[in-house]
From TrEMBL:
Protein name in the entry: Putative 2-oxoglutarate/Fe(II)-dependent dioxygenase
Entry keyword annotation includes Iron: yes
Pfam family, one: 2OG-FeII_Oxy
PROSITE patterns linked: FE2OG_OXY (PS51471)
Family: Belongs to the iron/ascorbate-dependent oxidoreductase family.
Keywords attached to this entry: Dioxygenase, Iron, Metal-binding, Oxidoreductase, Vitamin C
InterPro entries documented for this protein: DIOX_N (IPR026992), IPNS-like_FE2OG_OXY (IPR044861), IPNS-like_sf (IPR027443), Oxoglu/Fe-dep_dioxygenase_dom (IPR005123), Plant_2OG-oxidoreductases (IPR050295)
């Protein structure tokens, strides 16, 4: 299937989108719900430096804030995370450089299966998508083994450094989440084998769309892993679902956008919900986002933690993470449809 970037290059004066990209034909309208835009609506902000602080009072306060964010939002911003801004900017520039490669060069990295370590493509899963998304992507497995395209020059080295630093941030956040659940600090990290967990580098390109009201960058969905950390090139387009309505996310400079994912909802026995989110497009600017998905090891069976089912029966069946991942990637994205497959209550 032709990438969005190639489609626009071949039709520079495109004023309408092909019918295969129109979501109204699939009863999905990007404006299907009013946006919450009240000034008092504030997305939670977590100060990572306090989460790793030696001051027990500061740490206790931020752990409480983190627990509230996971329970009531499934989403928060992380500031003061110590990942250099120059590195974040360089990685975004590397993503742009990859998408700017000639199509023949990018197609060298075209994968066929969800577990292929490097996959360049368009839409979500073009072989099963009934309507195509206005998005090109690069997905790479970067842990426990590091894979990466060898183009553009220097991109691989930047990505390696960046992903290592992200894993340290994830470990710190999960420590706070564990303690917020009344568990030991390393409980989630160890139970889900995050030391050898799957980390995926997912770069997304959303070019300007001549009819953004008809198209969708990514439909409403939840992520399959434990935590996803996201950065972008300053162009907004992420929306999260909160109390049944869509909220525009405007990131604080040099922050990470973090969403809780399906495996954390399963592990917490439903106390912490994975957040449903989507990507909308615009008609005047190219948006580049980079999501770093952090999950258990592929062979880990994820089920509700035994300590969290003492007063409430398990709400989900256990399933090997590899099987969960393959199932999600083999079907159309639709809200939390995969969680519904393993839900007991």
């Amino acid at each position: 299937m032709t990438s969005i970037k190639s489609l626009l290059a071949e039709s520079p004066y495109l004023t309408s989108i092909p019918a295969s990209y129109i979501f109204r034909n699939n009863n999905i309208d990007p404006n299907d719900s009013a946006l919450l835009t009240e000034p008092e609506l504030k997305i939670p902000i977590i100060d990572f430096s306090l989460l790793t602080s030696g001051d027990p009072n500061q740490r206790s306060k931020v752990i409480s804030e983190l627990g509230e964010a996971c329970e009531n939002w499934g989403f928060f911003m992380v500031i003061n995370h110590s990942v250099p801004e120059r590195l974040i900017d360089a990685v975004i520039d590397g993503c742009k450089g990859f998408f700017d490669l000639a199509e023949e060069e990018k197609l060298e990295f075209k994968g066929k299966h969800v577990l292929d370590p490097i996959r360049y493509g368009t839409s979500f899963n073009a072989s099963v998508d009934k309507v195509f998304y206005w998005r090109d992507f690069l997905k790479v497995f970067v842990h426990p083994q590091f894979h990466f395209p060898n183009k553009p020059s220097g991109f691989s080295e930047l990505a390696l450094e960046f992903c290592k630093k992200i894993r340290q941030v994830v470990k710190g956040i999960l420590g706070g989440i564990s303690e917020g659940l009344g568990l030991e600090r390393d409980y989630i990290y160890k139970s889900l084998n995050l030391e050898s967990g799957l980390q995926v580098f997912a770069a997304n390109l959303y070019p300007p769309c001549p009819q953004p009201e008809l198209a969708m960058g990514m439909p409403p969905h939840s992520d399959h892993g434990v935590l996803t950390l996201l950065i972008q090139n300053g162009i907004c387009g992420l929306q999260i679902q909160h109390n049944g309505k869509w909220v525009n996310v405007n990131a604080i400079p040099n922050s990470f956008l973090v969403n809780t994912c399906d495996q954390l909802e399963i592990f917490s026995n439903g106390k912490y919900k994975s957040v449903v989110h989507r990507a909308v497009v615009n008609n005047n600017a190219t948006r580049i986002s980079l999501a770093i998905a952090n999950g258990p090891s592929l062979d880990t069976v994820v089920s509700p933690a035994s300590e969290l089912v003492e007063n409430r029966p398990p709400a989900y069946i256990g399933l090997k993470y590899k099987e969960y991942l393959e199932l999600q990637q083999s079907r159309n994205l639709n809200g939390k449809c995969m969680l519904d497959c393993v839900r007991l209550l």
